[in-house]
Each structure stands twice: as C-alpha cells, then as structure tokens.
Amino acid sequence: MKTITRIEEMIMLSILNLGNDAYLVSIQNYLSEISDKKVSLTAVHLPLSRLEKMGYLESEFGEATAVRGGRRKKIYSVTEEGLEALTEYRELSNKLWDDYLKTES
Amino acid sequence: MSSPPKILNRLLEWIVDYKERENLSGDFAEVFNNIVRKSGYARALAWYLFQICKLIPVTVIESLIWSLTMFNNYIKIAIRNFKTHRMFSFINVFGLAIGISTFMLISLWVQKELSYDTFHTKADRIYRVERELFRDNLYSRWPICNARYKQALIDDYPEIENAVRFWDKTFSITDKNNFIHRQLLYATDNSIFEVFDFGLKAGDEKTALVDPNSIVLSSENAEKYFGTQDVIGKSLLIEFYGEPVNFKITGVLKEIPKNSHIQFDMLVSISTMPEETFGIWRSNNLYTYVLLKEGTDRKVLEDKLKTFVEKRLEPHYGDLMLNGENIHRVLKVHLFPITNIHLNPSVNFEWGQGGSLTAVYVFSSISILILVIAGINFVNLSTARANNRAKEVSLRKTVGALNHQLKVQFIQESILLAFIAFILSLILIFAFILIYNTVFNESLSAAQFFSLINLLVLFVVTLLVGLFSGLYPAFYLTKFEPASVLKGGLFKGNSKSSFRQIMVIFQFAISIIIIVGMSIVYLQMHYIQNKGLGFDRENLVVVPVRSSNVRKGFEAFRNQLLSYGKIKAVTASADLPGQPIYGNNPVYNREVSDEAISMIIMYCGYEFVDTYKMQIIKGRDFSREITSDTTGTLILNEAAVKRIGWKLDEAVGKNLYHGRTDVPTKVVGVVKDFNFRSLREEIEPMMIVLLPHYFTSISIKVLPGDLTTTLDFIKHKWEEMFPEELYSESFLTDRLEQLYENEKKTESILFVFSILSIMIACLGLFGLAAFTAEDKTKEIGIRKTLGASVSSIILLLSKEFIIWITIANMIALPISYFFMNNWLDNFAYHINLGWMPFLSSAMISLIIALFTISFHVLKSASRNPVDTLRYE
C-alpha cells in the first residue's frame, strides 16, 4: 500500500466530513475555513487526481447548477482502500507522537 | 449571478485535460462567481486569467511530450514504409527534389533579372531622360537626347539634384606595341561618381573626369594597353576625330556589377568633346540620367517638364506642328526609372540587349508548373499507396486513434519526405550550378545561392509542398472504415478516382506544352542558322588585322593572294557581319529636315560587296577607278532608302550628312537588304562607307576543296610579307553562330525543362500504372482463367492511359499553338507553324507514356492467375 501525504490526508478527511457534497470547490472552501488559510484550487485538484489514480478515491458526476454555467460537478467519495490508507497514516502518526511524548516525560 | 467571459472559458476548456473538461470549468465558474460576490468582477476576472496562465505551461509540456512520443512512432512507421516500398518512395522524393530544385534555380535567375540597377544607393531617385514622340499615329520612345539637356534641366528645375551624360564613341587606341584597337568608350560627366555607385579603385572620384582629355579605364583595359594595373598619370594615344591626342589616365574603375544595364570599359571626360559636336538641339546623341532630390514626385516633375518642352524644344520642332498640332500631343519628356530599364528596354538606341519581361514571366510560370507537377505526383502516389496503408489506418483507428491524429500523422509523413527531397534538391542545385558554369561559361556562384534568405525560401516552399501534398492523402486515407478493411483482407480502393485522372491529364498537358515549345524553338533556330542572309557566308576566311604595317602592305598582299587559283576575292573592312557595330549613328537628310535618322554605318574597303556576294540593285559598287569615291560617297541598303522616304530609283545621286562634318556625302548605290545582325532583328537602315585605308580584318573568299593547302598558302604569304605580325584565321560561319548564343541558351534551357517535366510526369505515371495493375489483379486473374489472351489484357490495362494522354493532348496542343505563335512573332524572320511539331509531340508523349506503363502492364498480364486468385 502506498503512503499518502499530509495534504492528501486532509483532503480525504474533508471528503468524509462533507459527505455527499464533496467536490473541488466545496473541499477547497472547507479546508480554507478550517485552517483559516487560503487554499488554492490547484493545491486541491492535483492531490485529488493523484488519489483517484491510486484508487483511494472514486468519483461520479453530480447535478448541474446555474452558478456553474450548467456544468456538472465531479463528486468524490473515499473507497475502502482509501479508508485503510487513512487509518494506516493515522496509526503511524500516533506511534510517532507516542514515542515523542514518552521521551519528553 | 455572473459568469466568466465566454472566450476565456473556451480557452480554459481547451487547455485542461479533456476528461475533466466539464467539471473543472464548472468548478472555475463557481469560484469565479464567489469572488464576484465578495470582491467584484474585476478581481474575479484577474483571478480567472491568473489561473489560465498557471495552467498553460503544464498543458504545453504535456502535449509536447505526447506529440513527441507519437512523432517518434510516426517516424518509425514512415521509415519502415520507406524501406518496404523503396521504389515508390524514391520516385516520390526524387520527383519532388527535381521540382524544388528547378523552382529554386529559376527563381535565382528571376531574382537576378529583377535586381538590375538596384545596387545603386540612390536607385529610387535616378531616372533616365527619355522622349516620347507621337507622329503620324506612331509612338516611338527615344532614350537619348541632346547634350545640352543636362544643363538646361539643372538650371530650370531645382528638383533635379544632379545629372550624368553617357555618350558612346568608338575610337582607335594605340597600345604599347603600337597595335591599334577599335575601342568603345563613353564620354561622361564627373557626377557619375556622385549619382551612381560606380567607383574608382584608384584615382580621385572628385576630379577624375573633370578636366578635358582625362580618361579612366577598367583593370582589364589597363592590363591590355599597359600590361600593369599601375597606370595613373600615364597617357594613352587616341585617334580623336582624326587627330592623335594624348589622354591622361586619372583612374582605374572598380568592377561594374553584372546586373547593371550601364556597362563600360573606358570613360573620358565629356569636357573633352568640343561644343560643336553637340550639334543642334534636335540632334540626339547621348543618354542623360538625372538624380532627383529626395521627396520629389516624378509625376509632378514630369508635368512641370511641359514648360521645358515649350521653352527649349518647341522652337526646334516647328515642322511637327505644321497642322496646328499642340506640341504636348506630339512630344513628351519622360523620366524613366532606372530600375525598370532592364526589363523594359527601348527598341531604339538601348544599351546592350536588355532583358525580357516575357522571359521572366514564362520561366517563372514554367518553374511553378514543374513544381506543381512534382506536387501532383506526390499526391497521386500517396493515394495510390492507400492499399498498403489501409490496414495500418484501420488498426490505428481500432486502438483509438482519432481522425485528426491520423491526418497529422500523414501530413507529418509527407513533410518528412519533402524534407528528404529538400536535402536532395540542395545537392542537385549544387551539381547544376557546377555544370551550368562549365557549359555556359558563366559565374553563378553557389555561395550566392545558398544565402540565408534563399535557404529560408526553399525551406518554406518545401514545407508548403509537404503540407499540401499531404493534405489530400490525409483526408483520403482517414476515410476508411476499419471494419470492412480488416475483415475483407484486401482493401477495395476507389480506382476510378476522378481526382487522380484529372491530375495525370494536367501533368501531361503541361509536359506536352513544354515539348511542343521546345521543338518549335529548335526548328526556328535551325531555320535561322540556314536562312539566306542576303550575302554568301560560306568559304569566307577572316584574318584579323591589328597593325598599320599590314594596312600599308595590304594591296601587295591582296595581289599575291589573288594570284593563287583557289582564292576568288579579297577585301578589307573595319566591320564584319556578326560583329557588333557600335553606335546608332545620326544621319541627316538636311534638304528635307533636321531630324536625325538612326543608321548603322559600316566601314569597308573596295570589293567588299563583291566578296560577300551582296546584290547591288541600283547604282554601283565603290570603284578604284573613280577617285572621287574616297571622299564622301556611300552605299545604302533598301531599308535606309525606305526610312529616309526616297523611292528606290531616286536614291542614287542624292546627298546625306553624317558625322561631324558639314560636307555632304553622295549616294552611289543601293544594295539589297542583307542580315548583318541577328535574324531576331529587322534589317536596319545601313549606310556603307568606303574606308580603304583603315580596316581591322581581311576577308578572303576561297573555293571549296583542299582547304588546308589554301589556308597554308594564305598563312605562308602573310608570314612572308609581315614577319613580325601575328597571324590568325577563322571562318565567318563560326563567327555568325555566336550571334544566336542567347537563343541557343533558351533552347537548351527549354530542352532541360521538357526532359525534367516529362520525367517527373512519367515517374507519376509509373506509380499510377503500378497501382492500377495491382487494383485489377483479381479481375485479370478471372479473365485469364476464362481464357483471355495476354494481348487483350494489355489492351485493357493501357486503354485508360491512352485515353488520358489523348485528352491531355487535346488540351495542350491549342494552348501551345497560341503561345508559340506569339513567340515566333518576336522574330522578324520565322518559320510557319505546321502540324508536324504538334503531331510529333503528341506521338512522343503517347509513346513515352506507354513505355512507362509497359513494365507493370506486362508484368501483371503475364502473371499466373493461380497466384493472383489464391488469396480468396
């Protein structure tokens, strides 16, 4: 299993949190709000394509709205493999934190 | 709610990956909307643009990588195709290379023709002062005028900055060995160095031609007369109007560019010429060029020149307006741009031969036609090869190739082939220049050709040819339905493609036109060289004379020669047929008018008319018995009598004035017109003047048979009598041949063209025959099994081609008749167009075509049907 990066972790978590309405712009907005930093579209789009290629994400076309000039959204959802990778990332992260805290005390 | 500008949206959609085109452009539109709401439209637009800019580099790199990958594959396939169909590819590339190199060589020549006189830095401001006369409804153009025009024009018109005159004179010059040469030189103003870009290698350009009796000369002449280049300050002895005068050498000329219509070897200061030689205002004797001030409008100035006509010329042209005619309707002073002179030479009094605008047009169109023929081949052969490519195309389509990708592939392939042809054509051009220079003794330089601009043009032409010839095959080949091709095994091509038929007919029509043209040029040349000239040119031996020694001893020499049985006549003359006669001399019939009549003056000795077997039709030849003949008598030709306006009967006994003297010369005889110059020219008015003591050659009429002994005798006598003089001899017939050098060049160029065009067309036909034969493989097989004979199959296969060639002939023959009729009109004496050249060209084209296809026809007709039907 391939490891993911931090931004990819953040994006996958955002998709999980957003539920049925996870697409490029909503992910960007959500991340910007939560981190209180400006996140650019490309910064989100590139990891998205990478994750999709790795099979951690899947996508389908959603509804079209007027605000998008009548074009459909590409809605993302996390796959089983994606969840596994996410969990693995978290475990690794936890381990590292634990070790650090141990030496600290 | 607002959306991004449509055009930007398009751009965005175009640069993003096409799989995500829809959702991404939607996403961008949504964000755009958000920004509009938050910070306004301008900010949103700026953001949108910025996003696009950020995407561009990625897109470009992506597409480059992909096209390189595909290009790699295309090249690989192209090379494989090239290898498996070696002959086809060779025909394709070679034909195109020939087409491209012909095109380029001709444009090189056209470039040279168009570049005449453009090398002068002030070329756009230099004009020649010419007069246009409209008399008796006849228009004539006179590039020469009186020597006084120059000063008058400068005085009257501030727009004229400067002016130069050129007055051609033929003088006798004595060289270091006391040999006397007839030399053409020009009397000119020192302003020549200010107006034109002619310059001096040595000497002061500011003063070289200011003082009287100054002379500047070319390096070759310096070598000729002094044997050294270091000649400044030395003096040269010139027989100037009958008196020997020493001229001081003040400069050595730089080489004059070949593309200058003004050519000279020697210049003397015009201040040397005595004022009285200018003659009256109406005697026109020299060229005048003016340099206009910057920003002067020629048309406006020409209009102002009307006052010049009124003030300066009208008083002298009274007779033109006898019937109350307005002077401006009869006489115009015209400024002719110097850069136009070469291609629009005046009929009268022009420097040298001049160029031909028609030739420029004809040769350019032929070269373009040859390029077109080669391009057509390329198209035809590529489509004919569709059979072999159909499977590849279908397979590529099946694995997902898009139509436009296939088109790009075929266009790239044809451009690739075109570039191989490009390299080949460079080699061909180089070889051609080498051969051309040796054959025609010219100095086209390869370096001049391979200049950056020429290479660039060649490159672009190649690119275009590749592109255009790739277009049709690209569209044709991509039309295939993969399923039927892959399933059927053999692709059933569109064998009755009318496009290909039309192309072949077109190619052959062009080739036939060129062949007819060539054969008629050949016939005309043959005619010219064998036509009666009005004098007998056979068995005439010419011996050049260079020293006064020989002149003194000529009579004795002549008597010695005449004592030999095989020598019929001996004469001496300053001029010879086929040798240029300088100067269009003004002759005046003062009793009637002061207008100069232009005539050739030929100087000859006694018995000239007799030796050359010319025919005296009125009066008599010069005679040794009549002593008054040596002072002021002359013989005219018929044309001269006609030009003056006399009747044949009344000419003898009349007086004419020529040269500087006011002494009249009496007409003693009229000679039947004879062709002294090239047959291209109408016989011009000529006066023959007796000059027994000065001559440059001896003509000896010998009897045919045992020529060697006769020539030995002449040589022996010469060496006996003039032991210190050089002896050389030539036959007049050989000298006359040189008159038609230009036509011979045209003939050989056309010959090369016709071979080239027919060759390229045949290459194409060869390929097409292969295609047709292959296409009918199955049909032939079935016919043979059913009992068809080989000959009936040959007929079946050739029938189509014979029809094509016949149609091509029907188109080509009338067109070539029209063109060649026009061309023949250039000659004063020409052949009548019969049907022979047309019929033979038609036959030749048919035979060549049949011969070309015979290889494939015979091969497929004799094939065993078992082999051809087996694939079923």
CATH topology of chain A: Arc Repressor Mutant, subunit A
List low-confidence stretches of chain B.
none
| Major sheet attributes of chain B | 6 strands, mixed, barrel
CA distance, first residue to last residue of chain B: 68 Å
| Number of structural domains of chain B | 4
- Spatial strand order of the main sheet of chain B: 4-5-10-7-9-8
Number of helices of chain A: 4
Helix content of chain A: 55-70%
Strand order of the main beta sheet of chain A, please?
A: 1-2
**Quaternary organisation:** heterodimer
Strand and helix order of chain A = HHHEEH
The termini of chain A sit apart by 34 Å
What's the level 1 CATH class of chain A? Mainly Alpha
Total of DSSP H or I helical runs spanning 4+ residues of chain B: 27
CATH superfamily of chain A: Winged helix-like DNA-binding domain superfamily/Winged helix DNA-binding domain
Strand content of chain B: 15-25%
Tell me the layout of helices and strands.
The complex is a heterodimer of chains A (105) and B (872).
Chain A: H1 6-18, H2 24-35, H3 41-54, E1 57-64, E2 72-78, H4 80-104
Antiparallel strand pairs in A: 1-2
Helix pairs in contact in A: 1-2, 2-3
Chain B: H1 6-15, H2 21-39, H3 41-84, H4 86-114, E1 126-135, E2 138-142, E3 144-145, H5 149-156, E4 160-174, E5 180-188, H6 192-195, E6 200-203, E7 214-218, H7 219-226, E8 235-240, E9 243-253, E10 266-269, E11 286-292, H8 298-313, H9 327-330, E12 331-337, H10 338-341, H11 357-384, H12 386-398, H13 403-440, H14 446-449, H15 452-477, H16 482-488, H17 498-530, E13 540-544, H18 548-562, E14 567-573, E15 585-588, E16 596-604, H19 608-611, E17 616-619, E18 633-637, H20 638-644, E19 655-658, E20 665-671, E21 686-690, E22 697-702, H21 707-721, E23 730-731, H22 732-737, H23 741-775, H24 777-785, H25 790-824, H26 836-861, H27 865-869
Parallel strand pairs in B: 5-10, 7-9, 16-21, 18-20
Antiparallel strand pairs in B: 1-2, 1-11, 1-12, 3-11, 4-5, 4-8, 4-11, 6-9, 7-10, 8-9, 13-22, 13-23, 14-22, 15-16, 15-19, 17-20, 18-21, 19-20
Helix pairs in contact in B: 1-2, 1-3, 2-3, 3-4, 3-13, 4-11, 4-13, 4-23, 11-15, 11-17, 11-23, 12-16, 13-15, 17-23, 17-25, 17-26, 18-21, 23-26, 25-26
